[in-house]
Amino acid sequence: MKFLRNTLDKAKHNFEEGGKYHKYFYVYEALDTFLYSPNTTAGAKGVQVRDAIDLKRLMMTVIIAMTPCLLFGIVNVGHQHFLALGQQATMMDKIMVGLMQVLPIVIVSYTAGGIVEAIFAVFRKHPINEGFLVTGMLIPLVMPPNIPLWQVFVATVFAVLIAKEAFGGTGMNVLNVALTARAFLYFAYPTQISGEVWTYLPEGAKVVAGYSGATPLAIAAETVTSGGNAVTQLSGFGAGWAEGIYSLQNMFIGLMPGSIGETSTLMCLIGAFILWATGSGSWKIIVSVFGGAYAMGLLLNALAVNPFMALPAHYHLVMGGLAFGAVFMATDPVTAAQTETGKWVYGFLIGVFTVLIRVFNPAYPEGIMLAILLMNVFAPLIDYFVVSVNKTRRLKRATV
Amino acid sequence: MSAETAVQEVKKSEPLFSKKNRKLITNPLDIDNPITVQVLGICSALAVTTQMKPAFIMALSLTVVTASSNAAISALRNTIPSRIRIIVQLAVVSLWVTLVSELLKAYVYDVSKQLSVFVGLIITNCIVMGRLEAYAMGNKPWPSFLDGIGNGLGYGMILMIIAFFREILGSGAIFGFKIFEAAGIHYQGNGLMLLPAGACILVGLIIWVQRSINGYREH
User: Fold this and answer.
1) How far, in Å, CA of B46 to CA of B194, rounded?
2) Are residues A189 and B201, on separate chains, in Cβ contact within 8 Å?
3) Is residue B64 part of a domain?
């Protein structure tokens, strides 16, 4: 460790004013502060907030909160792979298969985002932003395990460039960057990110008899045309090769096909707990997204025109990416509503729109991505109204 | 040529392509671009640019319509009562649009099918109306004609840039020629570029690049 510090210190003069690599000072600075706490501190006098938590530490907390999802995702990718092939496998085998699929996506995502960040940092002469630490991890977690790596690369470059740098960099983006990457792939290369792509199957693999890669949401959506009861369809799915894979309990635990990190509601809730305990994410948003989805589910149950609408509301909470989106995407402090009342409205509407899109739009089986992106755009408007309502209320109270 | 000489006789004082007149052509290409600076004519820029061929025909049609209606309205400008000027302008523009539309149907039928309503909609294109109101109503026919040509070219230039990227990224082709296939490379088309949203993003990128080059800022 001492050696690393010494090397950094020795190289420092090259990057300082007048040094030969001064142009790349911010690359050096980013590396330095990533590895060590900066040794410059705020002065003893003044009104600054004194806190050890800078942006990098905050981002690391969010990464730690995502780790359960990532680890579970790695195991689950392997698990689904062997399940579809109808083979028994040890835990080690599952982890190995999972790592082989997931790690390259993580590496490509960080590389692509890092390149764009570094180029902009050098051109715009600002420090390299830490914002990508979280985005670079979120992107792999919302990808199917089979996604071609070049698509991950293109999508990441697109998202960082269009959704973030075009608006002025970290903290200035209107849309959630990770979801922009996913939305880009969703519209640009739909064949690799929609339909039955959620289980990693090598080319020419022989699947077990009766295998189907349909997701719970697809099965539920099918009942609109084919009739039947959505719950029995779900619990009956996988008979012969994966009994009860879409039972309520298993969907909560998350051993089912899906994007790498989003299948497990349980792991998302652990992440939510970490975010709440460390104060990194707004619990109001998380609670209100679930609340909104549940309320919309109940409303549809009351109408119940088709079997999908009759699906019990709590099923919506464990199916698809709702939990992951609620915990890690909707709580993004930059793109969410800033006012405390606004956060309730913002989260609630995300939940409502998610279920609305799921049930009524046959083209989009899952709605959380589009719902969050839509509400990202509306977040400033929500804040505006919350602030102006507060203003009028206080003006009325004022006696002068 | 005869039209040009006729104009030359009327105003001998100013050469045909004086510096001021040249600016009428060059300004709309950059600092006064109808799409990227004035942000007009966006709907057709998003709608007809999935391929280069229809975009080219569209740009050509708009240039013809803008230039000729500019010249015509400018010639009529002192006789048009200002209270009914919009309806008079529309009548003149629709004459040219109908002509262009019939020509397209006669000679490039498939493209005119592809452009469908958008040729007809040139009548309501903001660029045409905008130039008539902003320029032709207050200037002589020849500069108005040049102004129409300039704005048509400025529009066409952006249209062609958008269409180039949309066609090459969306379907791997240029003017319908599949270049990636010809080179033996498998190319998977980018579906986003075929959607109007892709064109909207491209317009944004073009504005970004243009403004960082010429330093234009909105006031």
Assistant:
1) 10
2) no
3) yes
At B173, which helix (H) or strand (E)? strand B173-174
Residue type at A70 in one-letter notation: L
Q: A168 to chain B nearest CA, in Å?
A: 12
A190 contacts B192? CB cut-off 8 A: no
Q: Is the pLDDT of residue A126 over 80?
A: no
User: With bands split at pLDDT 50, 70 and 90, how would you rate the model's confidence at A77?
Assistant: very high
**Which residue among B188, B191, B201 sits closest to A162, beta carbon to beta carbon?**
B201
Tell me the C-alpha distance between A85 and B21, whole Å.
Answer: 74
User: ipTM of this model?
Assistant: 0.80
Residue B52 lies in a domain: yes
What are the tokens at A12?
A: 């420092």
The count of structural domains within chain B is: 1
Residues of B in contact with A184 (CB under 8 A): 192
Structural domain includes residue B95: yes
Query: What is the rounded average pLDDT of the residues B115-142?
Result: 86
B196 found inside a domain: no
Q: If interface means Cβ-Cβ distance under 8 Å, which residues of chain B face chain A?
A: 188, 190-193, 195, 197, 201, 204-205, 208
Query: Cα separation of A253 and A269, whole Å?
Result: 11
- Give the gap in angstroms from C-alpha B192 to the nearest C-alpha of chain A: 4
pLDDT, mean over chain A = 87
Question: Taking CB atoms and an 8 Å limit, are B193 and A188 in contact across chains?
Answer: yes
The dihedrals phi and psi of A256, each to the nearest 5 degrees, come to: -150, 165
Q: In whole angstroms, what is the distance from residue A352 CA to residue A367 CA?
A: 10
Going by C-alpha positions, the residue among A162, A88, A140 that lies closest to residue B197 is A162
Domain span at residue B71? 13-161
Query: What residue spans define the domains of chain A?
Result: 2-35, 55-193, 216-256+281-387
